[in-house]
Amino acid sequence: MWNSKLETLDRTSLEELQMRKLARALESAARTSYYSRVFADCGIEVAKIRSIRDIKELPFTTKNDLRLSYPDGMLAVPRGDVVRMHASSGTTGKSTVIFYTMKDVGDWADLVARCMAATGATREDVFQNMMGYGLFTGGLGLHYGAERLGCLVIPSAAGNTLRQIQLIRDFGTTIIHITPSYALHLGDEAAAQGIDPKRLAVKKAYLGAEPYSEATRDKIEAQWGLDAYNSYGLSEMNGPGVAFECVEKKGMHIWEDYYYIEVIDPDSGRLLSDGEQGELVITHLNREAMPMIRYRTRDLTAVIPEPCPCGRSHRRIERIKGRTDDMLFIGGVNVFPSQIETVLMNVPEVGNNYQIVLDRQENLDRMHIRVELYSKMFHRDLRELERLRSQLVKELQALIAVTPRIEILEPGSLPPSTGKAVRVIDNRKI
Ligand code: AMP
Ligand code: ZN
């Protein structure tokens, strides 16, 4: 373990540590123009918050609050102490900005090193980072952590598929950090060049930045002959390094000495128990530049109540099911894109790319799913294609209670994505 003392801290000591850190985080929040106003409006005296459970007296912070306090309404230190900024990808509106002091950058690197070590990574590993560098946190976040661990880091960034393959071969890359959609595409491209991804030295993949299904993980592991680990983070909480799978690969440990977590009912805000699905709310207990209290992530998950066999005391969260704001309402039925992905990726004839298109005709919602065939399965036997189409319709119908129209496409018909994939195109004018 990277820090076995902290990673195996007993729950009582962990809670005491959280309380000490929360008191500091609240003091620092009270120095920001945003939180000082919120605390005053709600009549909150931060000194009176005495136990970690009292945190529920504090109001939630939302993405919109961050936007409204743009650019520096949540800054708790003088501008001169800030050494870095990042911004969220802005897939759901105007992007938001996060600031870091030198200590924050160092703490973040340390957390990422902890995550990587939990997967068995060491200084002997060659780490190729295929995430976007720049304002997005996926590039620099993992980069600093991998250096801290002592790996050889190849900052290849997203895209340029042929060069990625070349680098993997020339430098014997053992770990890749990549979005799930790009991992599948890269594997296909390698195969198209006559290189079997399983024969490359890559032994681990860190997959994150977007929701994906267990079936997609299985597919990537089989295609590359590696172990894929789920990596979760969001820029509001630094970026990657918030929660990560250990070698058990059964849920992601969320580092509770840095993050205080709650799961709430997204509609009522009511606190849920471990094991119940809801929206993850996180308080950053450790950041100097930009405190973040009870931040509503909009990510849907549940805390896994059982302890992990690896011996870490920090609780695990389940794979993110989706976001409260990506749930689709189709003809009165709620559907998550991840449910559709699970069906598609379990069918061997289906390739790596798909798109969900929503339209409204004569006041009725219609779902149209465009799926690429797996290249090795591609043939023009119309009867076979028809059989596949009706199988997909039937399986989707059974799971999501919506009857989609399925369009089967040749491999490579849909645009591949190197960053976060855009899976849903909603043409309905609501
Ligand atoms: P950003 O702040 O732009 O990096 O986006 C963070 C968001 O990406 C999170 O709130 C999640 O919705 C999503 N995300 C990141 N990692 C994962 C993951 N492993 N599984 C599902 N969604 C993820
Ligand atoms: Zn574990």
Give an overview of the whole structure.
- Helix content is about 30%, strand content about 25%.
- By secondary structure, it is an alpha/beta fold.
- It has 2 domains: about 1-325, Rossmann fold, CATH 3.40.50.12780; about 330-430, 2-Layer Sandwich (GMP Synthetase, Chain A, domain 3), CATH 3.30.300.30.
- Helix 10 crosses helix 11 (about 380-400).
- The longest helix is centred in the N-terminal third of the chain and has 19 residues, at about 10-30.
- The mean pLDDT is about 95.
- The structure holds adenosine monophosphate and zinc ion.
- Adenosine monophosphate binds near residues 208 and 299.
In short:
Helix 9 (214-224) runs parallel beside helix 10. It contains eleven helices and 21 strands.
Largest sheet: 9 strands, mixed
Helical residues, percent: 25-40%
Radius of gyration: 22 Å
Distance between the termini: 51 Å
- In CATH's first tier, which class of the largest domain applies? Alpha Beta
Mean pLDDT metric: 94
Number of domains: 2
Number of strands: 21
Task: Indicate the structural class.
Answer: alpha/beta
**What's the name of the CATH homologous superfamily of the largest domain?**
ANL, N-terminal domain
Uncertain parts: none
CATH architecture of the largest domain: 3-Layer(aba) Sandwich
Morphology call: globular
Query: CATH fold name of the largest domain, please?
Result: Rossmann fold
Bound molecules: adenosine monophosphate, zinc ion
How many helices does DSSP assign?
11
Strand order of the largest sheet: 4-3-5-6-7-8-9-14-13
- Strand share of the residues? 25-35%
